[in-house]
Write a structure and sequence with these properties.
The structure holds two protein chains of two kinds. Chain A is an all-alpha fold. Chain A has helices at 4-14, 18-40, 44-56, 58-64, 73-100, 102-106, 109-114, 122-148, 153-180, 184-207, 221-227, 240-259, 281-320, 322-330, 333-369, 373-377, 383-417, 420-432, 435-451, 458-476, 480-484, 499-522. Chain A folds into two domains: 4-259, no CATH class; 281-522, no CATH class. Chain B has two domains: 3-217, P-loop containing nucleotide triphosphate hydrolases (Rossmann fold); 220-292, Alpha-Beta Plaits, CATH 3.30.70. Chain B is elongated and about 70 Å long. Helix content of chain B is 33%, strand content 31%. Chain B contains ten helices and 13 strands. Classes of the chains: A mainly alpha, B alpha/beta. The A-B interface holds A 106, 182-183, 269, 271-281, 283-284, 287-288, 370-372, 374-383, 522-525 and B 48, 51-55, 72-74, 76-77, 79-81, 83, 85-89, 91-93, 95-101, 103-106, 123-127, 129-130, 140, 153.
Chain lengths: 527, 295
């Protein structure tokens, strides 16, 4: 354990931006969720209604768990944010632990450090201290924020510590998966896969309500946070389970560390094929990009399923609420409400998809800076062909990803209204009209790559600006010219789809792409 | 003899630094040409221009009769390149990379691929991320050497290889010479260049300072002589071309300009020679002579 403190300081130094961002994100969301719920559900009556809807809708139950105590604001916060806070803190913990254990080892830096006066367990200990400490800090800050909002202190502490407990469990999980493989991505994937399983375990336990197999939630660290019943019974003793799991996992990992060589994992490394089948630039790009394409397709499909499943409930909730109902009648009834919901959701999906498109384009730049483009371009592969092999993943891949989102929305919404045949093509269309705007963002990334390769990072600023302008612009009452900066402002709103803006957005994208191609054809390869 | 590579007056600047400054280089078809210089002298920049990866500011470069910037794809079908810093895709095995690069060049010789893998003792089933620097270089070497191309451009290809593999590499390059291929071998390892190259060009600060066969270049240098004479040496001090003379009794040590060797030896013989060792100039000395005055 000698040297642990130095390594803790090193880890904090290396993650001096990442950790504060996670802490701010989780604590701030706790605060904003509380404020929003306080405003929307200020009256006892509106809470009772929410409680009845939430506990009767299996989509809500699967996503957020049961609303145990709808009579208090604290109960609402624990329901609306508890499961997601647990998910996010788990992701934080597993990324941080892998980053400071297996990723270091894989990069060969552990070897360098271990040759100094550093104990065998110091790396693991430092990573556990940093990730576990951050989890506890987030829990404490959450509790303080909730107490600051005048919520009962015991409930606030129960909620904060519940969230922290998920962070601790995944600190342990990731400490263990880091021992298994030589590859940090496999370590992250194993821990992330486990997170998915325990989320689904509790979703399955909660989905059917009282009549379902609720005992399943007792096998899930996120289920435990539900079982604490923050702001209700405040069963602090439940937290002993995650604590024990944390201790066992960290202890096991520490034991494995003493039994294995530096750089190796418990799982054997697999050898790959001795002969390759790839023989074209596109074949290589497919190999490099397919994981991301499949991952994004699945993720956006799930997003579509989730939003599709609540759309009907949105309509119902308004109809059930007499005061809201009147307002809604004036703007066109519950159907208009559902349409407006889909317009917002598909716009959000379009914005999210632009992250995928930009990332697909920027693969070109990372191939260039890592010197992997050089040997390729020293073969008869033309510059044009190489750029096209990756750009196609932004252009066509973007369509695939959006289509999966539309598929998820349409299938689930169609099943709920009992008319898949109508809902599916409508939702596919609503998702795909976002494509030209996403192409424009990808076009900007390609122009940067072709003409100003040192500044490809600016692409992310463009993505962020589109997100902020489109999502917050109307609320911030930005001027129209400012709103017009985001290509997504010009996408026609569902259900009034017109071709005009789609055509000129596509034309802008074509011009940008052509400029990017031409620029790259003329420039030096640089790093 | 035709030129496989002919470069004249090449200039390339990166911002304020002048990486290549009026560079002239001529590589004849069928020869192994050593391209010698320390890090940062402009070797890789020259090679990248020849590959059409960088564009020259001015000057002309001809490669296999074509323009490296304009006729890129056509020329690349006829050459293979091994970069100095080989980075592989972490998820692809060495074998997959070899086959990919080979196919992109229009196919590779399977028998030769198998033979090279054996000679370099390389396991092609490992993933890119698990190879050491030397093994990554072997992947690129096997890919290049098993392609049927006219020209091999190798940028410090052995910097990660151990001495055993260095010997294998030298064998391979000698085989290539017999096959009639042209090789441009950039290196800062003098022994390697000395063992392999027909002709050498030395680059300094983006400019070729010396070019020719090893014999030509040796002509420009000094031979070290140490001798034990029958009597005291006389007349040596005043002779043209003799440097760093140390005389102790009947023993002498000195260096002599290679073109003055004949008169100096005659002078020694006149004193009566008991033992004589002469050391031919090494490339090392040649190299150092050109770089000493850069400081």
């Amino acid at each position: 354990m000698i040297g642990t403190l130095h390594l803790v300081r090193l880890a904090l130094r290396r993650s001096r931006i990442l950790l504060p961002v996670w802490i701010f994100f989780l604590v701030f969301t706790t605060l904003s969720t509380t404020t929003a719920l306080e405003e929307v559900y200020g009256t006892q009556q509106s809470r009772a209604l929410l409680g009845a809807t939430a506990n009767a809708n299996s989509a809500f139950l699967a996503m957020l768990g049961p609303l145990h105590d709808w009579s208090t604001l604290g109960g609402l916060v624990a329901w609306r944010w508890g499961v997601f806070a647990g998910l996010f803190i788990a992701i934080m913990a597993l990324l941080v632990v892998t980053r400071h254990t297996r990723a270091e080892e894989e990069a060969g830096r552990t070897e360098l450090v271990s040759a100094a006066v550093v104990g065998r367990h110091a790396h693991l200990a430092a990573a556990v201290i940093v990730a576990g400490g951050t989890s506890l800090l987030i829990g404490v800050l959450q509790a303080l924020v909730l107490i600051g909002k005048d919520l009962p202190a015991d409930g606030a502490w129960a909620f904060g510590l519940s969230t922290a407990s998920v962070g601790l469990v995944f600190t342990g999980v990731s400490a263990f998966t880091a021992q298994l493989s030589e590859n940090s991505r496999v370590s992250n994937a194993l821990a992330g896969g486990f997170l998915g399983v325990i989320y689904l375990l509790r979703a399955a336990g909660d989905a059917a309500g009282e009549s379902g197999p609720q005992w399943l939630t007792w096998f899930s660290p996120i289920g435990w946070t539900e079982q604490v019943r923050s702001f209700g019974d405040n069963r602090f003793w439940v937290l002993l389970i995650p604590l024990a799991v944390f201790v066992v996992l960290v202890g096991t990992s520490a034991y494995v560390v003493t039994r294995r060589d530096v750089g190796l994992g418990l799982l054997p490394t697999r050898l790959g094929p001795a002969h390759g089948k790839i023989g074209t630039p596109f074949g290589l790009a497919w190999r490099l990009q397919k994981g991301s394409l499949i991952g994004w397709s699945v993720a956006l499909f799930v997003v579509g399923v989730i939003y599709g499943s609540v759309a009907q409930a949105v309509g119902q909730m308004v109809e059930d609420n007499p005061t809201l109902g009147q307002i809604v009648q004036q703007i066109g009834g519950a159907d208009a409400m559902v349409d407006a919901f889909f317009a917002t959701v598909t716009q959000l999906i379009g914005l999210i998809s632009s992250i995928y498109l930009v990332q697909a384009v920027l693969r070109l730049r990372s191939e260039e800076t890592s010197f992997r483009a050089e040997p390729l371009l020293a073969t008869p592969v033309s510059r044009w062909g190489w750029v096209a092999s990756h750009a196609v993943f932004a252009l066509v891949g973007g369509a695939i990803v959006l289509a999966f989102a539309g598929l998820g929305l349409g299938l689930v919404h169609g099943l709920q209204i009992g008319d898949v045949g109508t809902a599916l093509p409508k939702m596919l269309g609503a998702a795909l009209v976002q494509l030209p705007a996403a192409w424009v963002v990808a076009g900007v990334a390609l122009v940067l790559f072709g003409l100003f390769p040192q500044f490809t990072g600016v692409s992310w600023a463009v993505v962020s600006a589109s997100l902020v302008i489109t999502l917050l612009g109307p609320a911030l009452q930005l001027d129209q010219w400012a709103l017009d900066v985001s290509p997504f402002t010009h996408v026609p709103k569902y259900p009034d789809i017109v071709a005009g803006p789609l055509l000129w957005l596509s034309a802008v994208a074509v011009v940008l792409l052509a400029a990017g191609f031409a620029g790259f054809r003329r420039r030096d390869l640089t790093t | 003899m035709t030129s496989a590579i002919s470069v004249s007056g090449l200039v390339k600047t990166f911002g304020p630094t002048r990486a290549l400054d009026d560079l002239n280089l001529d590589v004849q078809t069928g020869e192994v040409h050593g391209f010698l210089g320390p890090n940062g002298a402009g070797k890789s920049t020259t090679i990248r221009i020849l590959l059409g990866l960088l564009r020259a500011d001015s000057g002309t470069a001809r490669l296999l009769g074509g323009d490296p910037w304009k006729d890129t794809a056509a020329l690349h079908r006829r050459l293979a390149y091994v970069p100095g810093d080989v980075n592989l895709w972490p998820n692809l095995t060495g074998g997959e990379v070899i086959d990919l690069l080979g196919r992109l060049r229009g196919g590779l010789n399977k028998a030769r691929r198998a033979e090279l893998l054996e000679r370099f003792e390389l396991d092609p089933r490992k993933k890119g991320r698990t190879y050491s620097k030397g093994n990554r270089q072997k992947v690129a070497l096997v890919a290049a050497l098993s392609s049927d191309v006219e020209l091999l451009i190798l940028d410090e290809p052995t910097s990660g290889l151990d001495p055993l593999m260095e010997a294998v590499f030298q064998d391979c390059i000698n085989d290539e010479r017999e096959r009639g291929r042209t090789v441009l071998l950039s290196s800062h390892i003098l022994a390697e260049v000395e063992a392999l190259c027909d002709r050498v060009s030395i680059i300094r600060n983006g400019h070729i300072v010396e070019t020719g066969t090893l014999a030509d270049l040796r002509h420009l240098t000094r031979t070290s002589i140490s001798a034990e004479l029958a009597g005291p040496p006389n007349g040596l001090t005043s002779m043209a071309g003799v440097h760093d003379l140390v005389a102790e009794g009947n023993r002498v040590k000195f260096e002599v300009d290679s073109d003055k060797l004949d008169p100096v030896l005659k002078q020694l013989v006149s004193s009566g020679v008991r033992t004589l060792t002469s050391q031919p100039p090494t490339l090392e000395e040649l190299f150092l002579r050109h770089y000493e005055d850069t400081k």
